[in-house]
From TrEMBL:
InterPro entries: AB_hydrolase_fold, Peptidase_S10. The keyword Hydrolase applies. It comes from Sediminibacterium ginsengisoli. Residues 1-18 form the signal peptide. One of its GO terms (biological process) is proteolysis. This is Carboxypeptidase C (Cathepsin A).
């Protein structure tokens, strides 16, 4: 888990003109600051509003989409950066005091909110096949699973991602590009956004994917402590380690359930294991990991030869990697090596962020794949779609490049206490609930480490009734698989409804 997560965060019919969002002159005149002619610089403040309608759970949901920028201010009130956002607001709701607001981030840390916006929760999603692979012609379609029926949503692109840009060159990168700097300035920006759109009364939720989970975990306490803004929920999609230490035997062992899930998917295990369903098989591996594998690794060279061989045989049985190689690696199989080795004899590598994806290397030898098969597939499908959507459907006109991955320098990861910050925010706020979503085939932010986060955040079990976890039969962006798009959004919908208090329900223990 102690590796750069610069990958992510952290994602067919032609529709009629009537279904497409159209520019609303009346709304634009009332709410929008007009854009200047397209250019390759960013206005600190701009917006354009369009209208749309989507059918969710057999109900028509009308909405407006505001694509625009709001400033990041310095201490003297000078705009030093412009943050691009897309805000979806359901328009047939009169009272927003009880209407939840979801604030959405992706990760990287240098990537934009594109992935969840047009892959997961938004009212419009990109066209891909049922398993998440690119198809042509590129384009967009309505998302019948969007959570817009139960919550308004704003998708936020941090500085130097998407269309967001630093505006003042002499402001040091340390103002933006680090765990704690990122949290501080984004909390200020959220305060501005909530004030501009009159959402202080609304129940509020943060959702982050991949590195975005560290972002929102830290924001929960920052907003609460320094902006006096209290949340109802934090949603962690494919979470990172959240600054929770796991070294030595623990770090080595916790990877095994992910290895087992991937090997099962590719039918690389023995017949007796393959005939079991995935969710029936994995608890067996998890129990071995906790009860036998970690203690054995902790023994180091004091373990007996017989016990060492017994453990190696079980690791090989569950991982699909030979017993000889398990021993050669001293039980600590590097994930990079696993992605190369598991299907080496078949001539394929497996994806880092989603092991269902296959890659082709120049040669079968070596210790790691030539490229991330899943990431290049996702960039293939998402990049044209987001550019078409923002520029053509949402009418945001600019010649700026949309940064799928932006220049954020050497990210300062020191003093990452985001997991502990989230625990503290929960302890101080009885309203605050946490929901975790993981894909079984995610090798960068694996599902068992996500569970470990929860266990270590709350070792005394005082918060466990407000923490929940769900797993899906896909990878890092579980929502790209059609079946999981439906179930994962439904789980979000249920979480929001469950954690929004009834009128008059006090926040107290």
């Amino acid at each position: 888990m102690k590796k750069s997560l610069l990958s992510l965060a952290l994602c067919c019919s032609i529709i009629s003109f009537a279904q497409r969002p159209v520019v609303s002159d009346s709304v634009a005149a009332r709410n929008d600051k007009p854009q200047s002619a397209p250019k390759r610089t960013l206005d600190a403040e701009s917006s354009v509003t369009t209208k749309g309608e989507v059918t969710i759970k057999n109900q028509k949901v009308p909405y407006k989409a505001i694509a625009g920028t709001l400033p990041v201010w310095d201490d003297d009130g000078k705009a030093i950066a412009g943050i691009f956002y897309t805000y979806y607001e359901r328009t047939d709701v009169n009272d927003r005091t009880t209407r939840p607001l979801v604030i959405s981030f992706n990760g990287g840390p240098g990537t934009a909110s594109v992935w969840m916006q047009i892959g997961y929760t938004g009212p419009r999603i990109l066209k891909i096949d049922d398993e998440g692979y690119p198809v042509q012609p590129y384009g967009m379609k309505d998302n019948p699973h969007s959570i817009l029926d139960v919550a308004d949503i704003v998708y936020v692109d941090p500085v130097n991602t998407g269309f967001s840009r630093q505006l003042v060159k002499d402001v040091p990168g340390s103002k933006f590009y680090g765990v704690n700097a990122d949290i501080r300035y984004l909390a200020e920006w959220i305060n501005t956004f909530v004030s501009r759109y009159n959402r202080w009364a609304s129940p509020k939720y943060l959702i982050g994917e991949s590195y975005g989970t560290a972002r929102v975990a830290g924001l929960a306490l920052e907003l609460q402590s320094n902006h006096w803004m209290y949340l109802n929920g934090v949603i962690l999609v494919s979470p990172t380690d959240l600054g929770i230490e796991r070294d030595g035997p623990v770090a080595a062992a916790l990877k095994l359930p992910y290895f087992a899930a991937t090997a099962w998917y590719h039918k690389a295990l023995s017949a007796d294991l393959q005939k079991k369903d995935l969710t029936a098989f994995l608890p067996e591996v998890e129990q071995f990991t906790i009860n036998e594998f970690i203690p054995a690794l902790a023994m180091g060279h004091t373990i007996s030869d017989a016990k060492k061989k017994e453990i190696a045989a079980k690791v090989a049985r569950y991982s699909g990697i030979s017993e000889k190689e398990v021993l050669q690696q001293n039980f600590d199989i590097p994930t990079n090596y696993f992605w190369k080795e598991l299907l080496r004899d078949r001539g394929y590598t497996v994806g880092r962020l989603d092991s269902r994806y296959l890659g082709l290397d120049k040669k079968d030898g070596g210790d790691g794949p030539d490229f991330n098969a899943e990431l290049t597939s996702w960039l293939h499908s998402f990049t044209p779609a987001i550019n078409m959507y923002l520029r053509e459907e949402l009418k945001y006109k600019t010649d700026l490049k949309y940064y799928m991955f932006g220049p954020v320098g050497q990210w300062d990861r020191t003093n990452n206490r985001t997991g502990e910050n989230l625990r503290a925010a929960m302890a101080q706020n009885p309203y605050l609930h946490v929901f975790v979503q993981s894909g079984y085939y995610d090798g960068a932010c694996d599902y068992f480490n996500a569970k470990y986060n929860m266990w270590q955040m709350d070792p005394g079990g005082k918060l466990k009734d407000r923490m929940s976890w769900e797993g899906y039969r896909s990878g890092h962006m579980m929502y790209l698989r059609k079946e999981d798009l439906s179930t994962s959004n439904e789980h979000l919908r249920e979480f929001i409804k469950k954690s929004t208090p009834k009128p008059g329900q006090p926040a107290k223990y």
